[in-house]
Each structure stands twice: as C-alpha cells, then as structure tokens.
Specification:
Layout (H helix, E strand, L loop, with lengths): L5 H23 L24 H22 L14 H9 L10 E13 L2 E12 L2 E15 L2 E9 L2
Antiparallel strand pairs: 1-2, 2-3, 3-4
Length: about 160
C-alpha cells in the first residue's frame, strides 16, 4: 500500500494538466478577436460630442467679431461672408463704411468677454463686453448684445445693440 501507485500518479498528472489548461484559457482568452493578453475593452460606439446651443451662439458671435475685425483692418467686405447676414442692418452699416477704411492701415482685433447667451423674441442674443484693439492696444470697450439669425451655413450676426 505504498503512496506511489501508478494510478495516483496518473490522476495527479491529469489534474495538473486540467488546471494548466484552465489557467491558459483564462490568460489568453481564445474566445476573443483581440490579441492574446490584450487589455482592450470595447464598450460600444462613442457618443457624439454635443455642443450646447448657448456655446454655439457664443462661438458664432466671436467668429462674426473676428470677421468684422478683418473687415475693419482691410475694408474688404468679403471678410464678412458667412459671418454676417447680408440682409441684416449690421452688414448694411458696414457696407456704408467700407469706402472709408484704408487697407492695412491698422490691424484690429475684437475680443468678446463675459459672454452670456439666451433666446430673446425667438432669436439667440449673445451679451458681453467687446474689447476693440488696434495694433494690440485697446481703443474701445463696449457692452453689446449681438443678435444672431440662422443662415444657410450656421448662425450669422444680424445686428448689434449697444447696451453701454
């Protein structure tokens, strides 16, 4: 009745082989299309990034101000294309000023600060302080309501109301 019978040895070897197979199966996860040992976890399709309406309105207002600054620097009405509504009163005012602007005499920058956006009378309005810089120096600080209207390519500046 020794402890080393051939039946016991075969059972122990069989148990070791089964345990090794289970461990290998768990480690390599052959049921997956991922490479062996991969830590990649697929959850599904990522959700699209959603920008709030208010953030989109503020961005459109700053884009319009950037276009206005390019126009103020060059007198080129084409700088306003896609940013100001050509049927709007602000565009009409700038058309009247175009002939008085010397091309390249100064570089303007319009910076919108403390912006807040809300619907008013069915249209988005962005309110804030606009710093007007000429060649990097502040020449004016105004408090404006920038009225937007939806155009074919997105939000366009319709008009500006001075609240200062």
């Amino acid at each position: 009745m020794g402890g080393n019978s051939p039946g016991r040895l075969a059972a122990a070897v069989g148990l070791i082989v089964v345990l090794a197979a289970v461990l290998l199966w768990q480690f390599f996860d052959w049921s997956s299309d991922e490479p062996a040992g991969s830590d990649v976890v697929t959850i599904g399709t990522p959700a699209p990034v959603v920008v709030s309406d208010e953030a989109a309105w503020v961005a459109a207002a700053q884009d319009a101000l950037d276009a206005w600054a390019r126009f103020a620097s060059t007198g080129d009405l084409a700088a306003l294309d896609g940013f100001l509504d050509p049927a709007g009163p602000q565009y009409a005012q700038l058309v009247g000023e175009a002939s008085t602007i010397g091309s390249g005499e100064a570089t303007y920058t319009f910076v919108l600060e403390n912006a807040a956006a809300a619907m008013r009378d069915g249209f988005p309005v962005v309110s804030g302080t606009v710093m007007i810089l000429r060649d990097g120096e502040i020449v004016d600080e105004v408090v404006w309501d920038l009225h937007l209207i939806e155009g074919g390519t997105g939000w366009l500046l319709w008009t500006v109301e001075d609240r200062g």
